[in-house]
Known about the structure:
The complex is a heterodimer. By secondary structure, chain A is α+β, with helices and mostly antiparallel strands. Chain A has helices at about 5-30, 55-60, 170-175, and strands at about 35, 40, 70-75, 90-95, 100-110, 125, 135-145, 150-155, 160-170, 185-190. Chain A has a single domain (about 5-190), classed as Domain of unknown function DUF1214, C-terminal domain (Jelly Rolls), CATH 2.60.120. In chain A, the strands form three sheets. A four-stranded antiparallel beta sheet of chain A has the order 3-9-5-6. In chain A, strands 8-7-4-10 form a four-stranded mixed beta sheet, with no helix packed on it. Chain A has a two-stranded antiparallel sheet with strand order 1-2. The mean pLDDT of chain A is about 90. By secondary structure, chain B is α+β, with helices and mostly antiparallel strands. Chain B has one domain (about 50-170): Immunoglobulin-like. In chain B, about 30% of the residues lie in helices and about 30% in strands. Chain B is built from three helices and nine strands. The longest helix of chain B has about 40 residues, at about 5-40. Chain B starts with a helix and ends with a strand. Classes of the chains: A alpha+beta, B alpha+beta. At the A-B interface, helix 1, helix 2, strand 5 and strand 9 of A face helix 1, strand 4, strand 5 and strand 8 of B.
Amino acid sequence: MHAGVRYGLMLAAGLALGAGTAVLQLRQSFAADGITAGPWRTGEKIGTADASVATRASVALRGLLALPEREAIYFNAAEDSAGRKLTGACRYTVSGGAIDARWWSLTLYDAKGYLIPNAARAHSLGSAALTPAEAGRWQVDIARQRTGPHWIAMPDAQPFELTLRAYHPSPQLLRQRGSVDLPRIERRECTS
Amino acid sequence: MTRWIGPFAIACLAALAGWYLTLAAAPQFIMGRAWERLAEQAGVNRMTHSPQVTAERQTIVRPSPDLAYSVCAFDLSAGPIRFHAQPVPDHYWSLTVFDSETNVAFVESDRESRGEPVEIVLATVDQTVPDGARRITMPSAKGVALLRVLLNDAADFDAVAQDREQSYCRPVQQP
């Protein structure tokens, strides 16, 4: 084989491999966001040219038009606190304490980042829905049917993701976003 | 076999370059497609006050069902665009302007505006804006502005409609 052909083939193969790896990396996880806190992933400098190329691409694909961090921090999870993929075949409880922000919300999406139709339209829980007594310790169930006072519907067995939005986060939450206590995602019973 | 050492090294370098270039190009590519879709659905240089987010009505990825959205896909090619964000009392609200590469060129919320409207004029570097206007210079002609209003509950959507509908984007020089 001519040397030019060898170089050309390997150049093309390398470019295709690199581009394919980037696409898979973006589609398969939030790892490109960069910062890990338990099952949650988040980034920094979102919405600016100073963010890493991986963070910028991940946010563009999975959270286009996201607010910059002084306005909101987004924590995304595709796994539970034990590292298992979130799936609608199981029931989950998400529990946490006060989040140091003006308000927060927890929303369930499919693996492409869209709300999943359900008759009750129970897609999210916001801090505004909690009683003062619950503000410091709250829990929400993720299940087919309502099982507790706070419930997000997961109507079928497909994989899903959670997004926790903290609006007007405190300076401390901004600084410690990778080490702060965030809600636990615990898997309960599963159907085969 | 040694004939392949050089090509293999080139493949490794090309893979790194392909990975980096794909990630680097993604924001502008994705934003471009989103801009086209928004412009087709809602027009250009006009603010559309989207209906309540439901699973059946999702125009952007990862929408929040707790927010009411108004969106303006803008194009400064024909001149500057004026934005007016009307306060929604006792609610979180914010106006964010994104350039064609997803960078935030402007963001302000009720925390900064303290009950006053936000009024800005977007222009490219070579355009002039009216005297006294709060100018935001954009690096490119196209982009998207998004107005968010927090809903206390689903019933709140109608309650904030009157204020939301006073927000607009439109050319400074109306045709």
